[in-house]
Amino acid sequence: MRRSLALALAVLLAGCGRMIPEGQVPRPGTPAPPITQPAPQQPTLPPPPLPTNATPGPGVAALGIGAEDARTALFSFRESCPQLLRRTDQTGLTQPTDWQAACADAVRWAPTDAARFFATHFETARIGDGRAFATGYFEPEILGSRTRRPGYEVPVYMVPPELVRDWHDDIAPAERTGRAPLGRRDASGRFVPFYERSEIEAGALANRGLEIAWAADPIEMFFLQIQGSGLLRLPDGSLMRIGYAGQNGREYVGIGALMRERGLIGGNTGYATSMQGIVQYLRDYPNEGRAIMRKNRSWIFFRELPDPDGLGGPLGSIGVPVRRGSSVAVDPAYVPYGAPVWLNLDRDVADGLWIAQDTGGAIRGPNRFDTFWGNGGDAREIAGGMSGRGEALILLPKGTLARLGRR
């Protein structure tokens, strides 16, 4: 799902409050609340030293992992193993060889005895202070069509061929360090930033055959871009799954925080600081809403993914499907991809064992997690209301902490 760019719903809302009861929302056509300038964005965290600081936790058997929880986690762990056995762990905690025994046993282990699998192969560790904060994300389903037709006018674009990484001409060769930025070459051959959202909406990519589908609702498509993948319900009732393929290189702005700072939602505005409140405002004030959405200059390009009918899921950052209730996005600088994660939160629905298979642009720090809830109405409701705090433990192959001198 490439959550590094496709941010979870909670990223958009960032600390939303309760819902406003029905009947307190102003009627369409009333004057829009006043606009004020947003506060500057906070700087991102620097990368941690390697290896990540980890201290021993309780034994896995003491966690009391439930049978069904362990079964679904074992399934997701199996799917992660090919990546575990060949990826470099950014945290510095593990090596591919550390995972060999667990991955070899995972293939043949009986799912009905999955809790014993994790107790046999893993030890727990706290990363930092182990105090967790978890949000939720989901796979939205919106109306769409493979071809343009009345009622389906919002383009879903593939990656344009001119979107490339290169260096701006005014940057000296000696200063060209790190990863080159995304952009394009203009008619004169100069490297310039790629088109931003407002330019793309105005037709910068139109009529070039780049459309893989057409969506019915621009607001729903905007939120699907934030999620990074989703399902299009086609006119014949079938489903088309689309997933992240690229991004235009322009800056992402979370409109939920922007709207709060401008006094458009929350307080006495009549619009809740929730996805429902944001969407209601955007629909009630379409002109102002369009301008707000265009403050997010980022644009996500998509590709069609196989298996839209529920046998799999959207792909996470390590290229395996993310699964409802068992896949979690982490900061891979602190938590190894593929590692089991135990959460014990004040939101009981998210308690239990998860597998680190994804990441996100706002998922930063040793104990920041984003839980995946699949698709459908309840997924949207659970993910949208997920904001849990508590304890996190990372499960590492037995012997890892001793090798690192942490025991």
From TrEMBL:
Record Pfam families: 3D, MltA
Taxonomic superkingdom: Bacteria
Presence of the UniProt keyword Protein transport in the record: no
Recorded coiled-coil stretches: none
EC top class named in words: lyase
Catalytic reactions on record: Exolytic cleavage of the (1->4)-beta-glycosidic linkage between N-acetylmuramic acid (MurNAc) and N-acetylglucosamine (GlcNAc) residues in peptidoglycan, from either the reducing or the non-reducing ends of the peptidoglycan chains, with concomitant formation of a 1,6-anhydrobond in the MurNAc residue
SUPFAM superfamilies for this protein: Barwin-like endoglucanases
Disordered: region residues: 22-55
Biased composition (Pro residues): 28-51
Domain Lytic transglycosylase MltA: from-to ranges: 141-303
EC numbers on record: 4.2.2.n1
Keyword annotations of the record: Cell wall biogenesis/degradation, Lyase
Protein name, UniProt field: peptidoglycan lytic exotransglycosylase
Species this protein is from: Qipengyuania spongiae
